[in-house]
Write a structure and sequence with these properties.
alpha+beta; 2,3-Dihydroxybiphenyl 1,2-Dioxygenase, domain 1; eight-stranded mixed sheet
Length: about 120
């Protein structure tokens, strides 16, 4: 698991960011490379937590980080997920129960990733 994203409609993203940063007692910091994201610094230790401005319904989704997006996507599809779309190098899936997850390439420092990653047989 890499991140928890709080998706908010674009028109509500600033208010959602203000709410979540105050509710969680953390600092909100714009993520310059991708302006639709605002990081909630240290909201969930060990995980990236951010508000994402979306052109969609509000929801919370999880990001899975992997060194093999294709293999991890195939594994999750075999477990019952359905492919929704692709965004950049990320695969967007809907899992049983209706939640959205994204499978993305390694974002963490590679040494940390290797030390903490699950390895599937």
């Amino acid at each position: 698991m890499y991140a928890v994203l709080i998706d908010a409609p674009e028109a509500e993203a600033a208010r959602a960011t203000a709410f979540w940063s105050a509710a969680l007692g953390v600092t909100a910091e714009p993520f310059t490379p991708q302006p639709q994201f605002t990081t909630l610094h240290e909201a969930l230790p060990g995980l990236v937590t951010a508000v994402q401005a979306v052109d969609d319904a509000p929801r919370i989704h999880l990001d899975f980080e992997t060194d093999d997006v294709e293999a991890e996507t195939a594994r999750l599809l075999a477990l019952g997920a359905e492919r929704i779309s692709q965004w950049q190098e990320c695969q967007v899936l809907r899992v049983p129960g209706g939640h959205v997850v994204c499978v993305l390439p390694v974002e963490t420092d590679p040494e940390t990733f290797r030390a903490q990653a699950n390895v599937w047989p």
